[in-house]
Amino acid sequence: MLSIEILYARWRASTYPQVAILSIGLFVSYFIIVFTYRLTFHPLAKYPGPLFARISDWPLVIYCYRGDRHLWEYKNHQKYGPIVRYGANSLSISTASSVPLIHGPKANVKKGSWYKTLDISAGAPSVQMEIDKHRHALRRRFLAPAFSERALREAEKLITVSAVKLAAKVGAGSEKGWSEAKNLCDWSTYFGFDFISDLGYGESFGMLDSPESAWIPGVLKSASIFIYYVGYLPFIEFVRPLMGSAIQDYIGGQEAADSLKYTEMANSRLAARIKLEEELRAENKESERKDTFHYLLNSIDPVTGKRLTVEQLQADSALIIAAGSDGVAITLSACFFYLLHDPSTLSTLVNEIRTSFIDIEDIKTPKLNTLPYLHACLEETLRLNPPKPSTLPREVLKGGLQIDEHFYPPGVNVGTPVYVLHHDPGIFPEPWTFNPSRFIASPTVSAESVARAKAASLPFLVGPLNCIGKNMSYIALKLALVHVLFSHDVRLAEGVSGGGGRAGKLNACWGVGGTEEEGLRGREGEYQMWDWIIGFRDGPMVEVKKRAVEPM
Ligand code: HEM
User: Fold this and answer.
1) Which residues, including other chains, have CB under 8 Å from residue 158's CB and lie 6 or more apart?
2) What is the CA radius of gyration of the chain?
3) For each of the chain's 552 residues, which pLDDT tens digit applies?
4) Any binding-site annotation on 467?
5) For the chain, first and last CA: distance in Å?
6) Of the residues 131, 198, 467, which should be mutated to test ligand 1's pocket, given the most ligand atoms within 8 Å of the CB?
7) Residue minimizing CA distance to atom 37 of ligand 1
8) Atom number in ligand 1 closest to CA 473
9) Which spans are transmembrane here (predicted)?
10) Ligand 1 center from residue 158 Cα (angstroms)
11) 319: CA distance to ligand 1 center in Å?
12) Which of 150, 159, 468, 552 has the highest Cβ tally under 10 A?
């Protein structure tokens, strides 16, 4: 007691410089103690990783901001092995055997605290933001009817409208010979946003028709960058309460402002859809078009008897536009990139498409789902460029988690670095080569190796927290690819083709970030992607010609 009084008296008697020196001393001592603890007694101290990443989350924040996190993770696993400590409290585990234990239905984990900031501007958690396992399962029950087999059959008709339009726009100017060069990244993006808005709200953004709404992808990109890195800031607990408010604009700059602008856009779309539903209800009618929000607005939880609140709907609205449009868009442009760089794969696919369908009206399920090479091309593209390529944090729950000989205590984050796993040569021989045949059993590819490849392919993740839009994505991607390739020949544009390695940057809108100096972005044969929760890209530049032989 006495010593505290003496200390207090000395403090009061001290001069400003003395106070400043003492404060700096305390500050430095605090960090020395914290860093020493993280390198010695912390439960993850024994795991390898870059030194700065083992003592702080700042390297992770920086790579998230740059869009290069997946490349950084790849480099780390090459250097340190299958288990890497990429943050003070976080591990990424790149073994296929760990996947069911981290993502399976019985995994003793929940989503990590990064998810708390994901859709924070919306005012309520989206389904993806629900960290509590029980509440998440409840939200999934609301979404389930919108993604059921029946809903998918309805969705196919709506997606076809955008796919037909995509083929017409990509093919414009190709009637008399090869067209001018076109950036397929842009057209794929417009397709992704148009089909998801048409399907989601019954009203397309119309980007394939006019440039009026073409600002939305740029704003979403900016919002995603912000949300991605902010969630990992070491002092996020202090920042989170300010998020979603006007203060966000001042602190976070343009990217934070775009995050709010994006939320407002999604909210206004939803408000218009709710109004339409109310008008229909007042007239005792049901919407003829069964779009996603038809299901969500009429969904009643079978156990609780409750409907979703407006705030929850708003959060899901922002999520569905982002999650639905961009995953499909990047996969479509990446698929074209790989096909066009390996003409033998392109001709195999074109042949399969043109011998399977009689005319454009014929392009639909169930036949659409019976083309093995088409499906394999998409699986291979999603292997090479998973739109969510980096480790998504899962926090170990009470009781801990045993994976092989390692025990992970409660509270630490574990996760699967999907891009790293997808380039594991032990599972995918020649991992940088686009080889759809690795997903089709044949005399040269055993059924066991196909099963191994499929089990280690996680673009949609697996288990109860996986992507609910997986089947819808495959339908959208197949419709788009088949409609374009059924009626048109496509080739890489002469000169700059875009998309790969250093030559990738065509359009200032997309290509920021980059770690060329570290040798991570040098692969010309790899479709370049920037990981900001959703993947961003540019190119390929293509020329298009109307198919020579008119379909019968
Ligand atoms: C190629 C396209 C797509 C890919 C690769 C993809 C991938 C993923 C992944 C990996 C997740 C899990 C994220 C996490 O755990 O944080 C996810 C979640 C989600 N995706 Fe997709 N997605 C795609 C397209 C779609 C589409 C078309 C929709 C809807 C229309 C959609 C809706 C959702 C939703 C609602 C979630 C949150 C699910 C939950 O938390 O329960 N996605 N997606």
Assistant:
1) 195, 198, 199, 289, 291
2) 25
3) 557 788 777 777 777 777 788 888 888 888 799 889 999 999 999 999 999 999 999 999 999 999 999 999 999 999 999 999 999 999 999 999 999 999 999 999 999 999 988 766 667 888 998 999 999 998 898 888 889 998 899 899 999 999 999 999 999 888 888 999 999 999 999 999 999 999 888 788 999 999 888 888 888 888 888 889 989 999 888 877 777 666 666 666 777 777 778 888 888 888 888 888 888 888 877 777 788 888 888 888 777 788 888 888 888 888 888 889 999 999 999 999 999 999 999 999 999 999 999 999 999 999 999 999 999 999 999 999 999 999 999 999 999 999 999 999 999 999 999 999 999 999 999 999 999 999 999 999 999 999 999 999 999 999 999 999 999 999 999 999 999 999 999 999 886 666 665 444 444 333 334 445 456 776 778 898 899 987 788 889 999 999 876 545
4) yes
5) 96
6) 467
7) 128
8) 27
9) 20-39
10) 19
11) 9
12) 159
Distance CA(95)–CA(58), nearest Å, equals 25
Residue closest by Cα to atom 24 of ligand 1: 324
Ligand 1 first shell, C-beta below 6 A: 127-128, 140, 196, 319-320, 323-324, 327-328, 331, 387-388, 392, 459-461, 465, 467-469, 472-473
Atom of ligand 1 nearest to the CA of 330: 1
Which tokens belong to 108? Answer: 């003793």
ipTM for this model: 0.99
Ligand 1 centroid distance, CA of 469 (Å)? 6
Q: Report which protein residue has its CA nearest ligand 1's atom 7.
A: 460
